[in-house]
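Following up on my earlier thread - several people asked me to post the actual chain instead of describing it. Fair enough. Here it is, all 90 residues.
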Amino acid sequence: MTQAATPTSNGATQVVNRIKRAQGQLSGVLRMLEEGRDLQEIVNQLKAVSRALDRAGFAIIANELRQAAREGAVSDEDLDQLERFFLSLS
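Reply from S.P.:
Thanks for posting it. Predicted structure:
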């Protein structure tokens, strides 16, 4: 259960889109730094990038849990591992 869902599944596609959006936001942060923009604006954008990545991580874990539930074979060890992944994001 350590491998993320393939990009062909709907949930994985949504995660990929979230990460691409965060990548674009991060590029915006770099541009803001190069332009010497206001610190508060830069920090706000960094917070947005961080939230977007956190949400992507949570979505990956949720997708994995859904997939395991659909397959009907979720061991306590699998649940413990997913819990560790989840907690590591906070």
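The helical segments are 10-35, 39-71, 76-88. That should answer part of your original question.
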